[in-house]
């Protein structure tokens, strides 16, 4: 009897060893696919985590350089999950880098966190209804990107720990993206020096990624401050030197110059200081310009001309002028091999399953904002996307467009921008209406789908060394073969961290009353008393 038991035990051990040996023979490709299936399933079970993070950041509603609550909240989650945080990078109090892992490859994952002025809006309602009148709000959708990244990174980290996979995950925020005020500083100060690749996420209305020339503009953001001398505007105006005169002449001169600029240029301004009161000749006045074009050379030319105009006008008006670079971005160009790797997983994951409530809200909002019937590429706009976007290559032609300082990172490290479907097609952009979806099931579903794509792509990049090798080959021999990155920043150019402080100091006390409390409410919609979708205003 004893020998029979021993024989059975030996046979069991032999079978177990054979099974283990068979496991070890599993090809790397098969292993990756198994792990990808595992993280996709795990992320599907993280819907509550996604909803809570997205809703929480939405409720903070923080403008660029003032994202204190947002950064504290997100870094606390990362620290609880084993990431080491370096705060205040590049001299920006709300910026940070979170790292976990060891060795190569070093893969950076980022997204923006700031919101826009006067965009406060209740989510889930198909009409204008601010949470706090005139307060900032997430009318761009930047409340969703880092929650997506964090979800992805934590699940991939689990696989890396268990399977002893070499690599380092770096998570970082785009601070003050609406001011293009941080990423060029990250590059200048060396925070991406050793990074092998970067996946950047941005809210969109489909699962999409592009490569090559993005067709957008780069820019410089510059404020001109004029100083004259005050006088009684009625009693002795001849004794004054009006700084406001200088600002107005600057604006008139630049608007005349527009007819001699290429159609691709975009330039716009706001008067940040127009004096104090009409009966006092303004001793100080200021104007803030965004100067956009398609190449570094054209942007630099516009910038130099603006400085020449300002100094000349100061001479004309008997005033003095100084200027400060507040932000900058290069035109975008993104990596082909990484984009192809991302798109492969986009096709596997597919779009979220939208229910009737999601589509009802989307169509009601499209009607509200008088959305166009088709996109610029000819795709019909009718509710939320149900057909995947295609992988698009370089823009063949562009009249110029917006700007994003992720381009400064992309010209230094192989980078892609991955868009995920958390917003509604056809909205104006930079508008209160763009915030309607951003704390609803539309945003939550889009983030979960996007997190699956990023997690799957991370595993591909960690296990298939050819992806990053090919990415660098494209970066060196195609993207930067003839065009070399030159920063607009000087070594002593400081980030404009003073911007938006007064606005946030004004509105933060009122906004705090509406911060999301997940201990009391399952969703932010519930906290605000909104029955999703709310298509008509309650009488």
Low-confidence stretches: none
CATH class designation of the largest domain: Alpha Beta
For CATH, the homologous superfamily of the largest domain is named as Zn peptidases
CATH topology of the largest domain: Aminopeptidase
Strand content: 15-25%
Alpha-beta classification: alpha+beta
The appropriate CATH architecture of the largest domain is: 3-Layer(aba) Sandwich
What does the largest sheet look like?
7 strands, mixed
Q: Percent of residues in helical segments?
A: 25-40%
Number of strands: 13
Please state the overall shape, judged from the principal axes of the Cα atoms: globular
Number of domains: 2
* Number of separate helices: 15
Task: Kindly provide the radius of gyration, computed on alpha-carbon positions and rounded to a whole number of angstroms.
Answer: 26 Å
Distance between the termini: 85 Å
**Mean pLDDT metric:** 95
Order of helices and strands: HHHHEEEHEHEEEEHEEHEEHHHEHHHH
Strand order of the largest sheet: 1-2-4-3-5-13-6
